[in-house]
Amino acid sequence: MNALKALFTEHEQAVWLDFVARGFIAKGELKALVENDDLRGVTSNPAIFEKAIGHTAEYDDSLKAVLGQGDARVIDLYEGLAIEDIQNAADVLRPVYEASDGADGYVSLEVSPYLALDTEETLKEARRLHKAVGRDNLMVKVPATPAGLPAIRQLTAEGISVNITLLFSQSVYEEVAHAFIDGLTEFGEKGGDVSRVASVASFFISRIDSLVDKKLDAVGGYEDLKGKVAIANAKLAYQRYKRIFSGPKWEALEARGAKAQRLLWASTGTKNKAYSDVLYVEELIGKNTVNTMPPATMDAFRDHGRARATLEEGIDEAEAVMARLAEAGIDIEAVARQLVEEGVQLFVDAADALLGAVAGKRAALLGHRLDAQTCKLGEALQAATDKAIESWRASGAIRRLWAHDKTVWTGRDEDKWLGWLRIVEDELERVDLYESFAEEIRAEGFTDVVVLGMGGSSLGPEVIAATYGHREGFPKLRILDSTDPDEVRSVEAAVTLETTLFIVASKSGSTLEPNVFRDYFLGRMKEVVGPEKAGRHFVAVTDPGSAMEKAAKDDNFRKIFLGVPQIGGRYSVLSAFGLVPAAAAGVEIRDFLDSARMMVRSCGPAVPPAANPGVRLGAAIGTAAKEFGRDKITIIASPGIDTFGTWAEQLIAESTGKEGVGIIPVEGEPVGVPAVYGEDRLFVYLRLNGHADARQDEAVKILESEAQPVVRIDLDKVERLPQEFFRFEIATAVAGAVLGINPFDQPDVEASKIETKKLFAAAEETGALPAETPIFEDDTVALYADAANAEALRQDGFEAIVGAHLARVKPGDYLALLAYVERNEAHHAILQEARLAMRDARQVATCLEFGPRFLHSTGQAYKGGPASGVFLQITADPSADLPIPGRKLGFATVIAAQARGDFAVLAERKRRALRVHIKGGDVASGVKRVAAAIKAATA
User: Fold this and answer.
1) What is the per-residue pLDDT across 718-749, written as a single tens digit (0 to 9) for each?
2) Are 850 and 830 in contact (CB under 8 A)?
3) Scanning 102, 362, 502, 807, which has the fewest C-beta atoms within 10 Å of its C-beta?
4) Catalytic pick from 27, 31, 64, 141?
């Protein structure tokens, strides 16, 4: 008889295998060990599965089968593989289980090490795994942490067999044993069959010697203790086992068929090559115990091990070893606590590696269905980004983020603003609602849908409208997010009111712009179709209980879609605020959300940061800004998806630009040659395969070759764009954490709103806005500045003052043109040419924004972010005002109040700001004059 088989036959010590793998089971190797070596159980842990799944191709076919039919979360992919292995191993060991009357034949599966410090979550996970495996001969592994102890008792009381892991301390072992006895007693009192519950207490061996030997080296003079402490500790633990499982309380349970919780010797592979490779087997052979061995140790013991009863030999010597260890100043309880902490972390590290491997295989198998992301950041930025990513992994930050842990950021109220994390799954449950709405709108023959909103309520729908285009049979989707009278008139002129549906979108219901839009178009609709029918042309999207909801009910709107109060506007595109307009325009909502969900799963809590595209992007953005001064994120996008930056700039700027720090998005600035850029940029290139601009490709390639940091994201088709909404939301939240700010508030946007409301209210009362005194004026323009800026711009003439203002732009600064005029192609082209002249001449970032829409977007960063902006605000007398029904003043006063409120806050924040006002209503000529002055200043 070989020594391995003799352990149980002659000494009643069960041999378990600390290993599991698919091929090992499928090829019959596990069964051969059972038949030839009397193997009596199997243990697993994250490290074992990481080696099996991450470093072999054995599981690839199973993953292909799942992902070939759709998609799945990384954690579900892993668990599907692991549970199948555990079930198959349990089936192989079933004869042992039955022959031993449930004493042996077990396979162990560990609860997630991420839950080691959470009793309730450990209980939930253990129950779920027990049910999912569905085998009587499963043992759920629970660590002997302070949080694990109550879980051990409760699970036992529920009749679930438990393998308690990470035991190093004799005193903690006693707590574990009593938790088992107490739980089993409760189970019996409830009528449970105590004979069907088993447990092992996994006492780790070699790790103790590894740590103690190092400590002995540090102390010096105790060489005789090396390699002896772990065995001594285990032998004394066995003596405690004998005492605990011999008293009256246990004997009463034993009389009813209960099986004692056996000590299982774990970590029995020798780590110190100076010691015998079978040391931790030969010295711990005793009755009613288990030794779980890795394959190499099992092979070694079979080959040259000696099977004899040793566990109760040398007890006095064991006590002497422990006493001498204390004499050396080494506290074994402190050693045990350290090893538990390290053990949990080792399992966490292994779980991270395991899930990262699964995530990598998932991404590879999804192929072009998942937007790919590659980073060329340069050596220094990449190293710093990697450090940030590792910090996120070590602190479990991505799991904490998904658990709504506000300490990921500032610890203020961030936990109240994370509803966007799960909105895709929630909205998938409501797809029928959106589909029926879409069919209703199509069937009634609406030709146009106009979203009336600002910021997050309008920018997402604008990207959807531009990207998905006009869908046959459905109305054309348009956006109105400007109070400029000319722009309001242009939108009205483009549609037929009788066949137009208006979507009034406002989370709070108190935002000025959507309310005046509603007032105007509801009034016009009543004139056209009558008061009774007007409400049927309106839909509201708003948060529950808002003033907008009440107004919509009062005005008999066709429908009211409610948002989620825990989602801020800029994170709302994947909620009703984006889905209602998309559905009305004929976008297939299920496909839209399914695409988004693919990225949600890629960025999920179980995907370690190194494999998590959202975390990687956010870490790069945040680190580039914080440590390298690269705080201008420049968004380049292929034709077909080129409007994405207008949504992303709001998300990034409003989330990060506060408390004097932040990231300034640069959108709509055509990519140039390296010579026109400073060292303050990070480029993000969204490339649409099959529609890419060859000039963009070449320009980005040159930027990379010149050591400019570039993140490239490849989309297979436009319908993949929903993935990018979620990727950038996660990335922005991560970047906010790296910067140390709250990415979910917008204090300086509120400041502008307050100032605007104050001015507009005063104007409604007096009939006009307060008078102003320009610092310069001629027949066509007037210039305005606060006292500090006026003092800095003491020049004669329009061009001279503008030139002096632009001369204040220094390396690392950015120029923002803030145009409160109609946003049309002509105005954009004129100002775009001017901004590029400034970029090319000064190598500075430039932003071109149209007001008032940017107030709910980049306006936050301009006022609250880094003081590196130079602002040129452009306002104008409209060609004609447009009255608003029910209000004393028209749109011209609204936009003027917004511009002046914006400018007042810029001045209050001590920004370098100058306002150019175009007089007389000839806006086009005035814009040309401003652009010419800018270009002259760069000559």
Assistant:
1) 999 999 999 999 999 999 999 999 999 998 88
2) no
3) 807
4) 141
